[in-house]
Design goal:
heterodimer; A: mainly alpha; Formate dehydrogenase/DMSO reductase fold; two-stranded antiparallel sheet; B: alpha+beta; Alpha-Beta Plaits; 2 domains; 3-stranded mixed β-sheet; 30% helix
């Protein structure tokens, strides 16, 4: 029983982590909680949760078809777990979609606003209907325990055959339509994966995966609950699976040959490598293994081979869903940990629900012994000093809720709150404007779009030395003309120019609390004495701008206020309205390049001291 | 009238007046660089931009308003559609945020409001309100060099071919948007190859909705076929397993 409990402990922890991540997802949006971008609008929530999730749940329709359509009754033992897995799998897909959709509360729109041309519309409808069908197919199992539901149960049992047939129809449609989704992006999906028969490939691989998933799941649960797997039945499934995989392999390579893309297979690039890895894992190696009767019959062989197929097909779905896409240069996507946490959390929830169902209801022929019930243990005492070693075995539920809460707390701790708050506005440290005192190159985010500020001209025009205080409104102690970026540290965010800890440190003069914060008052910025109480030379005499607090506004804001305020005035005085336009200072890229050349030329002529950024400073 | 825009990149001097006019007309928010931006200048807050092509050419990028738009075909709720005047417009009230349109667009035009807790897809809508009222879009109105002009698609196509014919050696002999993915309402003529806008290769002349059409049209037949097949197989096997019961209960 400890295996189950340990697993549940881990699953509850993962669920807690996911719960914490869900908060910023819905509070701040997709940009703050994922690594998705305009170049990669679909990420791991589609590539894994939806694409692979639906395929992983294919066992349901395979097994129901085997038992109820082909009437192979010896497979009956795996029907219930397979249908349950399918139901929970689809439920997990639906929940993941709620995270991935930008407007999840509008998911019902698909029922009202129809676009039958869209493969996604079809997938959505099928998944919705099939989820309902699976619920009805599985409902008789829990209903067994409730005598009141006997009538409903009887109706559903009678309706089983039509339900099964409907379920197979729906599965065929959407398993293949998941492939159709990508038919519309021939320029985006790599030719090794893009194919007009993608729907067929998806359907065949889903069948293979469904079979393998039954084998895989039976062995995993057998390990967990120390029960006997349905080995003989599974061996028959393994035998069937190799044929399906063989057909798949033939179709896949035949398709490449017909489309004249087989040459890509030998290309020495990472996409070809991924292709080979994927095909080897999902088909070539499993076929070879399942063709050996010893592997087919042995527990370890069945388990390992089925796991390989599961891994391979999931990899295939992820590849088609994103890895094998051709993207604009440099637009690389690696899921954020928050994205993975949600994906893993949803899977954990599904597994927990599965474990609950098999423990509570008769999913298997024999219900497993209740794993929560610990044999009664006496309190333990330390052998040496008779210290009581605590309450033996905290009740399982307490353990799980603790795991959940602690994991959620950790999750909150790891969340990059600033990144979430600024929503993709990443702090870009402003580098001190380069260029000495004559001409400054102001380009805070180093993207090549900047302003060449003619410092020397401004200084001359505004009245030489006396003009410094018009802009330099605050200097660091024992400094004059402190660079703007010393306080206005970030391009878009306000920053803190006061180094609190430094003041308390020995090198900062070891200033005691009460020297700034009056005794008996709250120690906040508002109650502290102003900086210029001690630093008499902080604000230069006659400074045009009065600073009241140590919190500096963002760099762009400061520059804009300062420059535009003055330019507006000057534009009126000099009757030059164009002075107030953005492109008066912010030339477009080409003009920046031009002005760079002008400056370089001028340097030779007049000896003005200009330091320009290196020509390739554009891409950072 | 089939509204269209013709952009002649040889006339563009990169003044960004169209970009500014677009921002003003559509009341787009402040332009702050974001993590998820592509470097082509288009974003949820910039529906048109000027990108630098080969040989320092300046190309205005915007939604092409395809005649058979892949985005509209892909959208599961029909939030995007091609209007009779030619604009591909977006109905935010229908959108559920699946972003399939962004995946489907061969030009990579639609952008997302990743920063918002209630995000929408954003792209040029050809100033649908203005052109419905008989005015021209803000961008073409603002262009000081008439590098980008508005008019009827057929007339603009004729004009484009006339310019290419009358100025031998100036233009590449292609009107981009005449046939690409079935043609689009935004046309380009240029002195450089504009295929860099689609990753260096032409997207072909086949309308993209046709790629999924076959699969989608097969859906009802496949569904009925599978249902019939399954019911039939079940019936036959059922009969074989109970040979003494020749006729099933009616």
């Amino acid at each position: 029983m400890n295996r189950v409990r340990r697993l549940k402990f881990v699953l509850w922890s993962l669920l807690g982590l996911a719960a914490s991540v869900a908060v910023p997802r819905f509070l701040f949006g997709l940009g703050a909680s994922t690594n998705l971008s305009d170049a990669n609008p679909w990420g791991v929530w589609i590539g894994f949760d939806v694409m692979a999730g639906v395929a992983l749940a294919a066992g349901g329709f395979i097994v129901t078809a085997t038992v109820y359509i082909f009437k192979l009754d010896r497979f009956h033992a795996v029907v219930r777990p397979a249908v349950l897995t399918a139901f929970l799998g689809y439920a997990a897909v639906a929940i993941s979609l709620l995270f991935d959709l930008g407007l999840p509360w509008n998911i019902w729109h698909m029922m009202v606003f129809w676009n039958p041309h869209s493969p996604l519309f079809e997938v959505g409808w099928c998944v919705m209907l099939y989820l309902a069908v699976l619920a009805l197919e599985f409902f008789p199992v829990p209903a067994e325990d409730f005598p009141r539901l006997a009538k409903v149960r009887a109706v559903l049992v009678k309706a089983r055959l039509p339900l099964v047939i409907l379920g197979i129809g729906l599965s065929t449609l959407h398993q293949s339509s998941l492939g159709s989704l990508f038919l519309i992006m021939p320029y985006r999906l790599h030719p090794l994966w893009y194919s007009p028969i993608l729907p067929l490939l998806f359907l065949v691989s889903a069948i293979a995966l469904g079979i393998s998933m039954v084998i895989f799941e039976s062995h995993v649960t057998a390990y967990l609950y120390r029960r006997q797997p349905e080995s003989e039945v599974l061996a028959s499934f393994a035998g069937a699976s190799r044929w399906v995989l063989l057909i798949y392999l033939a179709v896949r390579f035949g398709d490449l040959l017909v489309r004249h893309q087989a040459g890509q297979l030998l290309a020495f690039d990472w996409r070809a490598a991924i292709f080979w890895f994927e095909v080897a894992a999902m088909a070539i190696v499993p076929i070879a293994l399942f063709w050996t009767s010893r592997v087919r019959q042995s527990r370890a062989g069945q388990w390992a081979t089925a796991s390989l197929v599961v891994f391979g097909v999931v990899l295939n779905r992820i590849d088609v869903g994103g890895v094998a896409h051709l993207r604009p240069d440099g637009a690389f996507y690696l899921p954020a940990w928050t994205e993975i946490a949600i994906s893993v959390g949803v899977v954990s929830a599904a597994v927990l629900a599965f474990l609950f169902m098999v423990e509570r209801f008769r999913v298997w022929e024999r219900r497993p012994a209740d794993p929560e019930q610990d044999p009664l243990k006496l309190p333990e005492f330390d052998a040496v000093d008779d210290t009581w070693l605590g309450v033996p075995g905290i009740a399982a539920r307490t353990t799980y809720s603790m795991a959940f809460i602690i994991a959620a707390a950790f999750g909150f701790g790891f969340l990059h709150v600033e990144a979430a708050e600024t929503r993709g506005l990443e702090p870009i440290p402003v580098h001190q404007a380069r260029g000495g005192r004559d001409i400054l190159w102001i380009d805070g985010n180093l993207d090549g779009f900047g302003v060449t500020f003619k410092h020397v001209e401004h200084e001359k025009r505004e009245g030489a030395k006396q003009s410094c205080v018009k802009c330099h409104h605050m200097n660091l102690p024992r400094d004059e003309g402190t660079a703007c970026s010393r306080c206005h540290g970030d391009m878009y965010l306000p920053s803190d120019s006061f180094r609190h800890d430094w003041h308390a440190s020995p090198s900062g003069g070891r200033v005691a609390c009460y020297q700034c914060h009056a005794r008996g008052q709250a120690r906040t910025a508002a109650t502290a004495v102003a900086c210029d109480k001690c630093h008499k030379d902080l604000v230069p005499a006659g400074a045009a701008i009065k600073v009241k607090q140590y919190r500096a506004v963002a760099y762009t804001e400061a520059m804009h206020r300062l420059c535009i305020g003055c330019h507006v005035k000057k534009a009126k005085e000099n009757k030059k309205p164009e002075m107030t336009r953005c492109d008066w200072c912010h030339k477009d890229k080409r003009q920046v390049i031009d002005s760079r050349e002008i400056v370089l030329r001028r340097r030779g002529l007049t000896g003005i001291n200009v330091v320009l950024p290196p020509p390739d400073a554009g891409g950072k | 009238m089939k509204a269209a825009i013709l952009t002649d990149t040889t006339k563009c001097n990169g003044c960004h007046e169209c970009v500014v006019a677009c921002k003003k007309e559509n009341k787009l928010p402040l332009d702050l660089p974001r993590r998820w931006d592509l470097d082509d200048g288009l974003s949820a807050r910039n529906w048109t931009s000027i990108v630098e092509g080969p040989q320092q050419s300046l190309v205005r990028k915007q939604c092409r308003h395809c005649l058979e738009p892949a985005c509209a075909s892909a959208c599961p709720v029909g939030a995007l559609h091609k209007t009779s005047v030619g604009a591909v417009v977006y109905d935010a009230a229908k959108c559920m945020g699946c972003r399939y349109c962004m995946m489907a667009c061969p030009y990579g035009i639609p952008r997302y409001e990743w920063q918002a807790a209630v995000p929408y897809v954003r792209k040029c809508v050809l100033c649908y309100d203005r052109i419905s009222a008989g005015r021209q879009p803000a961008c073409t109105e603002a262009c000081p060099t008439k590098a980008t002009i508005f008019g009827d698609r057929d007339q603009l196509l004729a004009e484009a071919h006339r310019r290419i014919r009358d100025n031998p050696g100036v233009y590449v002999n292609t009107v981009w948007g005449e046939n690409e993915v079935g043609g689009s309402s935004v046309l380009y003529i240029s002195n450089v190859d504009l295929s860099f806008l689609t990753g260096g290769h032409s997207p072909g002349t086949k309308p993209l909705p046709s790629t999924t059409a076959l699969a989608m049209e097969a859906v009802p037949f496949a569904f009925c076929g599978v249902l019939t097949l399954m019911a039939g197989v079940n019936w036959i096997i059922g009969r074989r397993m109970n040979p003494q019961k020749d006729e099933p209960d009616e």
